[in-house]
Amino acid sequence: MSKTVVMAVVNQKGGTGKTTTCENLGIGLANEGKRVLLIDSDPQGSLTISLGYPRPDELQVTLTDIFTKIIKEEEIAPGEGIIKHEEGVDLMPANIELSGLEVSLVNVINREKILKQYVDSVKDKYDFILIDCGPSLGMLTINALAAADRLIIPVQAQYLPAKGLELLLQTVNKVRKHINPGLKIEGILLTMVDSRTNYAKDISNLIRNECANIGQIPNLEKLVATIRSREISACLILQAKSQLKAIYKDNADTIVGNMDSQLFLGGTEPSTLKDLNQMLGKETIDMYNTGESRGNNPSYSMNYQKTGHELLSVDELAVMDGEKCILQLRGVRPFLSDKYDLTKHPNYRETADYDKRNFFDVEKYVNRKLRLKPDDEYDVIDMG
To answer: Does residue 75 sit in the same domain as residue 153?
Structure first.
């Protein structure tokens, strides 16, 4: 039996489309024959209302009752509180009582994993469990992050929702570090995008550029090794090496080791500076020490020794001139160089930065269909 996927739809900003995403994704999966449980962990009961229960306060059993039983270590009956929906999904509803329970979680032992205990008890009955989170980063959202395997982050193409991503990603990293190391971000979902406006286009591009590297590429350490052995070029762009270590952990050094070149453009992230300092190494310095004594019997001495001196210390790297960069090629000593202004290149007009019509669509090129003309010559090879 395949492993159950537990996915949380989360963003502390309200109105980004979390409930709509959770509802439609769940029903879509159910239409594909998957067994789906939707969990409403929002005290406002938005998911519950959206699925046709306009008075969630009148429901006999909700997520609040399930939480209470887990806290009191009472037995939960099979299927208790779960509503069978006509669209083929199961629903664990919520109402405003959940807000009061969230406050009481402060004094509960292992309070971050109450929802996980429930999810673990029912996950063998489902292929997908989707958790709709409320617009906050409180204890209920932390519970959802602790219970989930993956995250979907709906974001509007507007300034404030995009700005709030930074705080959310910091919270996700803390949960990864202290509670749920296996938590992965499935993706950032742009919602309510009006592509007719330049504003929406700019915000969408900003989110893509800043957040495109938060996901994990499967088997990247094997991929870069294969690429190198086939003499194919690949470029890995990072804001900081700490990102690589956070996502790929023990494989981070393997990935970096398979890169034929490293280019440092500047920055102050500590682990990146430390690694670069060690990579640069030391230069040998000849030291001559002389001594002279004066008196009735004057004497003179000279001592010669070799010592190592760091090419650039961590402090020096942190304040490196913004117009400089450091490049290291495999088998060659690293060197300091000026950054090149791409706009001054004679062929700059041929790049996608100058004109988007110059963009080379690799996926379209790879998936293109071969069309033969009547007068084309070709060889037929029997592979049988």
So the answer is: yes
